[in-house]
Amino acid sequence: MTDLQPKQDRSRATRQRLLETTIRCLATHGWEASTVGFIAAEAGISRGAVQHHYRTREALILGALEFMFDERAALLDALPEPTGTGLDRVHTVVAGLVETIGGELFRAALQVWTVAAADPELRAAVLPLERHFARGVHDRAVRLLRVDDADPEIRALIQATLDLARGLALADVLTDDSRRRARVVRAWSTQLADAFEGISPDSQDT
Amino acid sequence: MTDLQPKQDRSRATRQRLLETTIRCLATHGWEASTVGFIAAEAGISRGAVQHHYRTREALILGALEFMFDERAALLDALPEPTGTGLDRVHTVVAGLVETIGGELFRAALQVWTVAAADPELRAAVLPLERHFARGVHDRAVRLLRVDDADPEIRALIQATLDLARGLALADVLTDDSRRRARVVRAWSTQLADAFEGISPDSQDT
């Protein structure tokens, strides 16, 4: 038993390095270049060891996406409760959501979505992951914003905010869009704060 | 001269069919499948004739994107002036913008952006097209909404609307998202109309 534990730890560490490398390879080099051989070499792991964890390339890529989606959700859960009320709070939360949805994980997922768009089998495998992640982010947004999304208007505005975040993430794929993004996030947050105020004036002070 | 004109017409018609087929192939079958041979076969044109118009696969794909971007801009220009004021007008325009930015052209462009994300040479070729199209759509949005985007807040809100449209287009790639999209478009239009009203109360009645 004393020998088994370190071996399990090593296996877990290897697996995590493999999944992180898979995301980085997809985001940086794209779908076509991200073969099992290439990812294994980049991670410094033998092909055999990779196949011990994931039998196919598709299983490896989907495993990496799921792992990173879960990590992002955990990061959102670990965020300190935003201070302030009204616009300050809304702006902090929206900026955090945009940050969480964009970046390297988005660029990796984009490679998978784009191939899945023309591949029904991959699409069927990706959709449940995608839905699970989207639902998790939506629920965390509701909690952080302290709003009640049983109100259909608030629900639609939270969804709009997450759609905006994906649109901003897409705009950042071809160029560094961070300065423009900051202005758009600020303008959007102002409208969102006004809307929450108008729909349920007390929701943010409870 | 009498013989030349029909020949030019035929050549132009062939070219247009080729470009439309290229967009459809990219949107439906993806980047990897959309080789010159496959596109030529789908369009019912010989490989030689394709190469007479476009010497490389990349030139063909970029030519098709540019052509379709220009067609979309022309469609926006041809839209009847939206009637009504306030929310009605804003909703009509936002729904039209979301329609124009999404759909088959978006799915085709997504294939190109995604490959360009990991290919600096393709990225350099795509960016000017992309910027030209984005600027054209922005200017048309300003005109249709009858707002003054010299105001930085209005400018950021128009940009946010176009980012939202791209996010919605992305959400539609893996599933039919049209019902949810209609609710999101309505909710955002309400906020946008309120914002325009607040920033420059007379702008929409002139």
UniProtKB/TrEMBL annotation, chains A, B:
SUPFAM superfamilies: Homeodomain-like (SSF46689)
Coiled coil segments of this chain: none
Pfam families: TetR_N
Gene3D superfamilies, per the entry: Tetracycline Repressor, domain 2
PANTHER family associated with the record: HTH-TYPE TRANSCRIPTIONAL REGULATOR PKSA, HTH-TYPE TRANSCRIPTIONAL REGULATOR RUTR
First and last residue of the signal peptide: none
Residue ranges flagged as DNA-binding region: 35-54
Protein name, entry field: TetR family transcriptional regulator
Top-level taxon of origin: Bacteria
MF-aspect GO terms: DNA-binding transcription factor activity; transcription cis-regulatory region binding
UniProt keyword terms in alphabetical order: DNA-binding
Domain HTH tetR-type residue range list: 12-72
Species for this entry: Paractinoplanes tereljensis
